[in-house]
Write a structure and sequence with these properties.
The protein has 148 residues and is mostly helical. It has one domain: Cytochrome Bc1 Complex, Chain D, domain 2, CATH 1.10.760. The chain is built from seven helices and no strands. The structure holds heme C (HEC).
Length: 148
């Protein structure tokens, strides 16, 4: 191998490495993660807890507490928590209103329960939280969208 091709090979490897560590991005945030054969049921699974200041406060305490969500999704919900920064794909950015419009609460619950295959989002019900706690957290996650 000539000097130039060796140099180019090394540069490409360095670029690829830095892209996977630093440049991680969300993967298709608008595309549902629920498998097609379970999507209708997931969408029909309604949040039994209406969004209210009380539910949102409960959800915040769980998100920043035993749910451990903030480690990856960030305290401000942007997906850039300490552990989230090194994940590829990146954790969901909950400040993205377009994402919220595309998803029913039941689809979010499905992911919190089953995880998103092949990503850092693992199943957290019942490992960390109960289903009822997850519905409160979902109300809190929705509140990160401030605009339209
Ligand atoms: C170890 C890191 C990590 C932790 C902890 C974590 N998440 Fe995630 N989460 C992710 C990643 C990564 C994704 C993106 C998965 C993908 O792109 O499919 C994600 C995606 C999501 C989504 C989006 C699902 C969708 O439909 O696109 C929801 C909702 C979610 N997480 C909720 C939570 C909740 C609630 C908690 C805490 C109880 C939590 N996550 C904790 C890493 C994490």
């Amino acid at each position: 191998m000539g000097y130039l091709s060796k140099f180019l090979g090394i540069s490409a490897a360095v670029l690829l490495l830095s892209a996977s560590v630093v440049g991680a991005e969300e993967k298709d945030p608008l595309k549902t993660r629920v498998p097609a054969d379970q999507l209708a049921d997931a969408k029909a699974n309604k949040n039994p807890i209406a969004s209210s200041p009380e539910s949102i406060a409960k959800g915040k305490a769980l998100y920043e507490g035993k749910g451990t969500c903030f480690n990856c999704h960030g305290k401000n919900g942007d997906g850039q928590g300490e552990a989230g920064k090194i994940l590829n794909p990146s954790p969901r950015d909950f400040t993205n209103c377009k994402f919220h419009k595309k998803r029913k609460d039941g689809e979010l619950l499905w992911i919190i329960k089953n995880g998103s295959a092949g990503t850092g989002m693992v199943s957290l019900i019942p490992a960390a939280i109960t289903e009822e706690e997850a519905w409160n957290i979902i109300n809190y996650e929705r509140s990160f969208c401030k605009g339209e």
